[in-house]
Design brief:
The complex is a heterodimer of chains A (345) and B (259). The longest helix of chain A is centred in the middle third of the chain and has 28 residues. Chain A contains 14 helices and two strands. Helix content of chain A is 71%, strand content 1%. The relative contact order of chain B is 0.19. Chain B has 259 residues and is α/β, with parallel strands linked by helices. Chain B contains nine helices and ten strands. The chains are: A mainly alpha (345), B alpha/beta (259). At the A-B interface, α9 and α10 of A face α2, α5 and α7 of B.
């Protein structure tokens, strides 16, 4: 382009240095809290806390929550919420378990082979995806607030799961599945369940932070109208985000099935709140447009480390939710203050 | 003194009619802009300026009438369709994503991908977008200290500049600017007007919607006046006075054949 007017003295914009960006990131500080907690418990219980076994169980117990929080991170960055993840997890587990039983002689899937297990996995993933799709369509197309839609599916998915099972947990889970995904390990020390969670998280982080899909997720959450005017298919994008979250809840259901060997119907009523707390703790803003996958990982492990540490120290584990809630409210308070100081109008 | 534009028109609206329920926002409005000119579109509140811009930028569709680009009738049924024709719009409410950095906003909806397999998987070439954004901002005289901070931490004027740059960079034919200087201070206003001139000099036409008559007289080549949903007058800015413009807007001055 030719410029016949006088050149304005435009200074070329600089990139902020890596150190400054690191220190100004929420993730950095919440990460320090996690490291501090881990070191603190290690000092207080040097023989019991910093052991390989304890580390492994810590990771295993956090795996399913981690998979759920990958999807939730996307949802919250779009300034949405998904209360249904725990119920969808149960539903998917039930569908997967029932599918495997139906294909086994005498409706006992305990000794089922890999073909049946594969069908079970597909059934669980499909079960999760269907709820995710329903959530997405109701939120993005019918424009019903996500809080209401997913509160509805939170109740409905669990209700349907209980209808299918008459309220009784399915207990015949293939031994082959339990031995491998449930409590098997790879590379000598890495539990397979953790491996799956790590792969999902890395893929999720890649999708969120490096691809166009991720950038649109931020854009939609930051200003949906601006995104729409930029030619972004906001409706389609939101449907996909909720679909992915449902799919991951389905995977979580299958992982839970492999680990516990039962559908644990009544065991996931607070998963949604735990996952939301983890994601928000990790610096993802409920107002949308801001967040990171690494933050969510840290956010999942802070409550997990607290629980483990309290149990080992003999502190009543009931202190864990108290401590987590306090940190959570503080984290949101900091987020709001940061936003207010950044908003220069 | 009606200023019939000479030469072929770049974008032309003929007899646009637009109803909102019982309200007739446009009653056969016409409008024209040619290559390399700044046209000010003025009119009192409710004259139909914003509606006309929405119809020409694809945000709304007129009930009847036609839009021509380079003399050919076109259908602008979405902002994307308008953009494909080289028509960009700076909205009054900016429509930027405040949590994204300036480069991400500049390339929003037009991201650059990496080469090879990673690019086909959807991976963005952030470094290249940042580099190109920096040079575009420099070219347009947009001053930013940092290129990787969210837009929300910029001043109002800087945010405005990014929003303007976002449209200007991609426009190949026409840029609509709806009150681009409304919320700005004196210095920032001058900067935006300077950008408008630079854009005009690069051969892209600018349509400026403004209430600020001194600004209109300072920057535009021609003025088209809307009143009650129709064009009531057109002026060459060099030959027009403030009284002419105000007279046409209020209905005190009549120009035959302007509609």
């Amino acid at each position: 382009m030719s410029t016949s007017t006088v050149e304005a003295p435009a200074t070329r914009p600089e990139r902020t240095g890596f150190g400054r960006r690191l220190v100004s990131a929420n993730t950095f500080w919440i990460g320090l809290v996690l490291v501090g907690l881990y070191l603190g418990f290690s000092v207080l219980a040097p023989s019991a806390f910093p052991t390989l076994f304890n580390f492994q169980t810590l990771l295993i117990e956090a795996s399913v929550l981690l998979v759920l929080s990958v999807g939730m991170t996307f949802v919250i960055i779009t300034s949405g919420i998904d209360l249904s993840v725990g119920s969808v997890l149960v539903f998917a587990g039930v569908v997967g378990a029932k599918a495997m039983e139906a294909l086994s002689p005498g409706h006992d899937a305990t000794s089922a082979g890999w073909g049946v297990i594969a069908v079970g996995l597909v059934a669980a993933l499909t079960g999760g995806a269907v709820w995710g799709l329903a959530n997405g369509l109701l939120i993005a197309r019918a424009k019903i607030p996500p809080l209401i839609v997913t509160l509805g599916s939170f109740g409905a998915a669990l209700g349907v799961a209980e209808l299918v099972t008459a309220g009784v947990d399915v207990r015949t889970v293939p031994q082959a599945l339990r031995r491998t995904l449930g409590y098997g390990t790879s590379f000598v020390v890495v539990p397979n369940l953790v491996l799956v969670a790590v792969v999902v998280t890395v893929l999720g982080g890649w999708l969120l932070h490096t691809t166009r899909f991720g950038r649109y997720t931020y854009a939609v959450g930051s200003n949906a109208e601006a995104a729409r005017r930029s030619g972004i298919g906001v409706t389609r994008h939101l449907v996909l985000v909720y679909l992915i979250t449902g799919l991951l809840a389905g995977l979580g259901g299958f992982m839970s099935l492999a680990y516990y060997g039962t559908t644990t119907i009544s065991g996931h009523s607070t998963d949604n709140l735990n996952v939301i707390a983890a994601v928000v703790l990790g610096g993802t803003s409920l107002f949308g447009g801001v967040g990171s996958m690494l933050g969510s990982v840290i956010g999942v492990f802070i409550p997990a480390v607290l629980t483990k540490g309290f149990v080992i120290l003999g502190v009543q584990p009931f202190w864990q939710p108290v401590a987590v809630s306090a940190v959570l409210v503080a984290a949101v308070w900091f987020d709001q203050r940061r936003r207010r100081t950044q908003d220069r109008r | 003194m009606s200023a019939e534009p000479a030469g072929p028109s770049l974008l032309e609206a003929r007899d646009l009619v637009k109803h909102y329920g019982g309200v007739e926002a446009l009653r056969g409005a016409s409008f024209e802009v040619r290559h390399g000119e700044v046209v000010a579109l003025i009119g009192d509140n409710g004259a139909g300026k914003s509606t006309l811009v929405k119809c020409l930028s694809g945000a709304e569709q007129a009930d009847s009438g036609e839009v021509l680009i380079d003399g050919r009738p076109v259908t602008l049924d979405s902002p994307t369709a308008a953009r494909r024709h080289g028509v960009e719009t700076v909205y009054q409410d900016l429509a930027v994503a405040p949590d994204l950095d300036p480069a991400a906003n500049l390339f929003l909806g037009r991201e650059l991908f990496r080469t090879g397999l990673l690019g086909r998987l959807g991976m963005l070439d952030k470094a290249e977008m940042r580099r190109r954004a920096a040079s575009e901002f420099a070219r347009l005289g947009v001053q930013l200290q940092n290129i990787d901070v969210p837009i929300r931490s910029l001043s109002g004027g800087q945010r405005q500049s990014v929003a303007v740059a976002r449209s200007v960079v991609w426009a190949s034919k026409v840029v609509f600017m709806d009150e681009p200087t409304a919320a700005l201070g004196v210095v920032q206003r001058e900067r935006v007007l300077d950008v408008i001139r630079r854009v005009r000099d690069s051969g892209v036409a600018v349509v400026l919607i403004s209430h600020n008559m001194p600004e209109v007289l300072a920057v535009s080549d021609r003025v088209e006046v809307l009143r009650l949903g129709r064009r009531v007058a057109r002026f060459r800015t060099a030959e027009a006075t403030l009284e002419d413009l105000v007279g046409a807007m209020t209905g005190a001055l009549h120009q035959e054949g302007a509609a």
